[in-house]
Amino acid sequence: MLHSELIPAVEPNSRRLLIMLHGLGDSLEGFRWLPAALRLPAMNYLLVNAPDDYYGGYSWFDLNQPAPGVERSRKMLFALLEDVAARGFPPELITLCGFSQGCLMTLEVGLSYPHKLAGLIGISGWVLDPEKLIRELPPAGRQQRVLMTHGTQDPLIPIAKVRLQIPILQAAGISVTWQEFAKDHTIAGAAEISVIREFIRAGYPPAH
User: Fold this and answer.
1) SS3 label, residue 97
2) Helix 66-86, helix 101-112: angle, nearest 10
């Protein structure tokens, strides 16, 4: 079972949930700032630690041999989604968001999950094997809303590699919004947060 921490919404009784997956060597502690930055009072947040220890933080998979770890972590995140659904957060009210390795896991999980989610957000990451992901796409996979953001100056995951993956996903019928920022391997402050916030809002029905 993955270690996670729930930060409840400001608005009582809200069932909206954003699950945040960190990058390599980070932990859930690295995203405690996110609720205050996004300013979405109806949103609950679940910050999650990856399963493997990595130099004081955690890792979702081994960079040198990613496939086994990706598959293992995907199954663990499927179980997490089932668990939060049993706790009253249905899939259609869940936004899955990840940074770097967490971005890869967000896309792996969200596009192979059998139920439509409110949205998938991948920041500064990539897809392990777009063709394989598309071959195994369930019907719900083509209904998912996806936002991918990346830095034009990213030294760790060069943007050119990821740019080539976007049209492959789009050609398969996946709704991917691609946004580039003049940043390195990070989140580009208020400008990027604003794009993320509006994408999240669009995934939920208007409040009554």
Assistant:
1) strand
2) 60
Q: Where are the alpha helices (DSSP H) in 1-158?
A: 34-38, 66-86, 101-112, 130-135
pLDDT in tens, the chain (208 residues): 899 999 999 999 999 999 999 999 999 999 999 999 999 999 999 999 999 999 999 999 999 999 999 999 999 999 999 999 999 999 999 999 999 999 999 999 999 999 999 999 999 999 999 999 999 999 999 999 999 999 999 999 999 999 999 999 999 999 999 999 999 999 999 999 999 999 999 999 876 4
Decide: helix, strand or coil at residue 120: strand
Considering the domain boundaries, does residue 208 fall inside one?
A: no
The domain in which residue 122 lies consists of 4-202
In a domain, 207, yes or no: no
Number of structural domains the chain divides into: 1
CATH classification of the domain holding 27: 3.40.50.1820
Q: What is the pTM of this model?
A: 0.97
